[in-house]
Amino acid sequence: MTVFLVMGGIMLFVFKEGSRNAFDNDRKETVFWKNYRRAFKLRLPSTDAIEDLFRLLDKQEQ
After folding, report:
1. Do 50 and 5 form a contact (C-beta atoms < 8 A)?
2. What are the pLDDT digits (tens) for 13-61?
3. pTM confidence score
4. Biggest CA-to-CA distance, the chain
5. What secondary structure does DSSP assign to 1-62, as a single string?
């Protein structure tokens, strides 16, 4: 399991994004992804990649 995908999924809720689309719009902003990388030392995943990972997990792991 890739840490940056799990962290991206958690941050989607921590940042109180109203939707996956809102998160994807924010991640297009240079300041947003630079600050994310600076704070967490991780790449900023797309929400499609996060969803793909969560669909692979067993229900008990979610």
Report:
1. yes
2. 898 888 899 989 988 999 999 999 999 999 989 999 989 988 888 776 6
3. 0.75
4. 36
5. --HHHHHHHHHHHHTT-SSHHHHHHHHTSHHHHHHHHHHHSS----HHHHHHHHHHS-GGG-
Structure tokens at 29: 């902003």
User: Which amino acid makes up residue 62?
Assistant: Q
Phi, psi of 6 (to 5 degrees): -65, -45
- Residue 26's closest CA among 44, 42, 43? 44
Distance CA 27, CA 30 (A): 7
> Residue 9 has which token pair?
């999924």
Give the number of other CB atoms < 10 A from CB of residue 32. 15
